[in-house]
Amino acid sequence: MKIELLCRYPVKSLLGEEIPRAEVTERGLAGDRALALLDLATGKVASAKYPSRWRKLLQLSTATGADGVEITGPEGLRLHAVDVSDASDASDVSVALSRLFGREVALIAEPPVQGELDRAVPEEVLAAGPTADVPYTVSRFGQGAPTGTFFDFAPVHLITTATLGRTGVAWQRYRPNLVIRTDEADGYAENDWLDRELLIGSHVRLRVTASTPRCAVPTLAHGELPPDPEALRVVSRENRTVPLPGAAALPCAGVYAQVVRPGRIELGDSVRFG
C-alpha cells in the first residue's frame, strides 16, 4: 500500500488543499482544521453537517501560503486570514463571511470551551433535501480528538482507493486526509483495520480507532461537484457497520486514526501494518 493523495482542510468544513507532503503531530497534519467559523448567535461552530444553514461552506476553497490561509469563493471572493489573533485581521474576514452567510460569524483559531456543533440526521436530509430544516443532534469537540482542536472525533482520516472505487464517489466528498492505494479488489477493506497500527514511510505510526460514520456532507455540492445523494446511499446499502464497540451499525466509509509516532509523510510513501 502507499499514499495516493494527501489533503488538509485549513478551515473546518471548507474545501481542502492537496499537498505533496505534511508534518504529522499528535494533533494531525500540520495546518489541518486550524481555523473555524463561530456562529455568534448560537455559540456553536459552523459545520456543513447542518446543511440547511451551512452548506455554502463547501463552496469556499482554502490554500495555505507564506502569509497565512487564503479563502476564495463565489463572485470573486478572496480573503486573507493572515493572523486571526490580530483583531483587525479577524474582523475583516469575519465581516465578509457574515455577509456571505447572512448571519454574524467570527473566524476563530481555538474552539470555545465545551465547543459544540449541530449535525443533521443524515436520513432526514436525504428525504427532505439539503435546504430543509430537519432534526439534528448536537456534538461536542474532544471526544477522541486532541484537546483544543476542531476535529469532530480524531485527528486523521483515511480511506482506500478500493473503497472509493467501490462507491464510485469522488474522494473530495469524503474529506480524507490520506487516500491509501491498496491492491484489495473489494471496497471497505478498512473495516478490518480497527485497533491495528499503520507504519507510513520509515517513521510515522498511526493507530486506527474507528470506522468513519458518514453524515449528510458527502451528498452536498462541493465546489463544482454537484449534489450526489448516492454518496451516502451507497454506503448505507453496502456497508452498515459498527464504528465503535457498543455503537449502533451505521453507514461507514474510511477510518479514523490517532497519531502514535509523529513525523513527516509524503506522496508515494509506503503504508504497511506495524
Automatic annotation (TrEMBL):
Residues 115-274 form the MOSC domain. This is MOSC domain-containing protein.
